[in-house]
Amino acid sequence: MTKKIKVGVLGATGNVGQRFVQALSDHPWFELTALGASSRSAGKAYADAADWKLGREIPKSVADIEVSEINPKYIDADVVFSALPADLAKTTEPEFAKEGFVVASNAAAMRMEKDVPLTIPEVNPDHLALIDIQKKNRKWDGCIITNPNCSTIVMAMTLKPLEQFGLRNVNVATMQAISGAGYNGVYAMAIYDNVVPYIGGEEEKMETEILKIFGKFDGTKVKCADFKVSASCHRVPVIDGHTEAFWVDMEKNPTPEEVKNAFKTFDPKLSDLPTEPEFPIIVCEGPDRPQPRLDREMGGGMSVSVGRIREGIRYVALGHNTIRGAAGASVLNVELMHKKGYI
Ligand SMILES: NC(=O)c1ccc[n+]([C@@H]2O[C@H](COP(=O)([O-])OP(=O)(O)OC[C@H]3O[C@@H](n4cnc5c(N)ncnc54)[C@H](OP(=O)(O)O)[C@@H]3O)[C@@H](O)[C@H]2O)c1
Prior knowledge:
27% of the residues lie in helices and 22% in strands. It is built from ten helices and 14 strands. Strand 1, helix 1 (15-24) and strand 2 (30-37) form a beta-alpha-beta unit. Helix 1 (15-24) packs across helix 10. The two termini are 17 Å apart. The mean pLDDT is 95.
């Protein structure tokens, strides 16, 4: 067997960090060797430092790993997956990249930097080429690669098969799970029996990140796409799984049947990455699907479910925000980097 790549998780005790640990503890290519978090957690065994009240099972192989501080000196790994708060990520991730680490980040801090790939393997794998430009520009031995915001990923996965019809205007209303705000993010008294029609910065992220993702890479830079996106984001009392309602206006005016067929036949050909779902998009046939409780675990949480495809074109999509929308997206990015020889 070839030697596994040593990987670490920054922000390992948090909501997304725990998902990273689950995805990496038994990975065929990666060996989880380091877990980093704040000084509140550093020095403790991982099982004691992370709060497991969410009912997730702690993988035995990592329970006794001692949590380190977030400092390149203490992290024994070649790749770090970052689930840090964005303000901390802005200073920390470049420090790690400068020290030679490959940094795969979930945080928003570096996503819109011109030389940083904002990548979804099924959508814009060619943007990985920005890595070489980034290393040259910044004189780093390592690099930073990012995945989009959780609701943007769900949107991008469903727009990719529709790109062939000429995207013009996309309107989207989201119903986002509370886990999207982090473990301590939303007070129970504020969300139980309620809908909060505001998520700070979320609409702006959906409206801008998508244009970079669908931008054309010309060999030196990404020229952003020019279709229009208008988003309205809402927090709802669901634990995991973002639901999104779409109205998409396209030049070729496809029928609902043509759209359904485009979703069903979407095959990005990633060539057997370990965590790639068999079906990136699953079309739900029932009139009342997709639903978070019934559909968020599809494809191990990596598939996006769509349904209610109607004239307009209107449809509803659902994706697991902490797996497909966060940790799983980062792990798939690094698998692609490995496959393409960047690691
Ligand atoms: N939740 C989602 O669905 C989602 C989706 C996509 C992207 N993201 C992004 O992913 C990142 C993490 O989100 P999350 O939901 O996992 O947040 P979270 O549950 O609040 O976890 C934050 C993590 O960062 C660590 N941390 C906080 N302050 C620190 C400090 N000063 N120094 C070192 N470590 C520190 C925490 O360690 P301690 O436990 O020791 O405090 C914890 O491990 C954010 O940038 C978020 O925007 C989240």
